[in-house]
Amino acid sequence: MENAEHWEDAKVKSEALRRRVIAEEQAVERSPGKAVDRRAQDPIEDEETFDLFAPMEIDEALTARLAKKPTFPPDAEAAAELRKAAMARELAWKKYNAECVESYEQMGSDSYAIGASKFRDNWNALWSRHYGPFEANTEICSMRFTDEPAPFGTSTSHTLQIFSAKVTGLRGGLTWPLDVFGMVAIRDTIDHRRNIVFDRERDNCQTLTKKDPYLVLTGPTRAVVLMDPVIIEVKLVVKGTVESEDKVLSYLAVEPDTSSTLYSKLLNMAYTSKLSTLEFTLAHIIFSVEATIFLRVIAGSWPDGFFGRFVASTASIDQDVVLLLHSGDKIFPCSDDGNVKLSRCVASVEVNGKLQVSVKAWKVANSGKGKYEVFMPEEANEDYVEEGGAHAPVTDSSVGIKVVFTPKEAYRSDDTLDLGFCKIKVTVVWSLISCNLA
């Protein structure tokens, strides 16, 4: 009963308000100067008459009254400033829209670029609070458990070995040669940070040619644990005449297909972007340990005019190698104390397999016109080594030899590469691979 009376009272008030609004509108039309100020008797501003349950006509009446509230035009200077600010906002909005459209069009034709952008956002949401910024590199080094006991439960691991990465299938007007800079990294579940494989700044590009389209890899800095997910992250850029003319050659973040296996196997992956195709040669190494390789000249010296190529390979996958160093036409990178600076030094090896480290050296003849003729070495084989080829004089076109190691779970192994003109000590530092940070 009380509610009924309440609603009846609200209807009466609403009707009174409606009549008052109509009367005021008519009064303003007849004589604008005599319009009545209704604020003193506005039921919405009167605490005694305001009712939360009043019909919507009260709100509509207030809205109508506020809409008719007179406004005062700004002076000319203020109006000019307002117009200027409005134009600036409009231009900024148009520029933003144009940039968004351009970015969308570029990425729209490159699904890997879209995936890489989403990967960055997802990574920041999931891991940044635990592992720092997206660009952070792994702080875990190799040789973690060489001299100290591994944590309880640590054992041999399945790992991902990267043999090579090359650029093919140029498009979009690109032609050889290319000056390339940027980054290639692998992320695993140990710390989700970048394990750098290739990294060059704009002022230190690598020149790729049609004959040699391979990136000179410098990593990984530790073994890559093959636990889902493992992500290969790439951002490679072609250097232009000026920075504004640089072009993104490959931008991706992909999870290679490394399905479970009972044996180590080779993996070939190709990822086609808008301007190129990037091909990786990888390997799934089962029950593996980490091998960190060091070379040191202990007798003689590396002769001038000789190229050197040092590689590591495993018995289970011998068709591809980890390129440790290719001196090319540069000075052989050896310090005063004999230590050889390798491009890469970490490899994964089956604990029940074999690790082979080999070297090939060949002479480069100067034609006298600033040009060099390269005598490519023959394939080193057992007969060649047994016949004394490794001790051939430097006037011979090539020299090749290898040493083989049996893997361990810790400690070190040593052997010597005797090239005749010099002896190089090979030290392999072994370690188990923990899947945890500690």
What does this structure look like?
The strands form 3 sheets. Strands 1, 5, 8, 9, 12, 16 and 17 form a 7-stranded antiparallel β-sheet that branches. Strands 2, 3, 4, 6 and 7 form a 5-stranded antiparallel β-sheet that branches. Strands 10, 11, 13, 14 and 15 form a 5-stranded antiparallel β-sheet that branches. This protein has 438 residues and is of the alpha+beta class. The chain is built from 5 helices and 17 strands. Helix content is 23%, strand content 32%. It has helices at residues 2-30, 57-67, 76-108, 111-131, 382-386, and strands spanning 157-168, 178-187, 195-200, 206-208, 224-225, 231-238, 247-254, 265-272, 277-300, 306-314, 322-326, 346-350, 355-366, 372-374, 398-405, 412-418, 422-431.
Keywords for this structure?
single chain; about 450 residues; alpha+beta; seven-stranded antiparallel beta sheet; five-stranded antiparallel beta sheet; 5 helices; about 25% helix; elongated
Describe the structure concisely:
InterPro entries: DUF6598. Helices cover about 25% and strands about 30% of the residues.
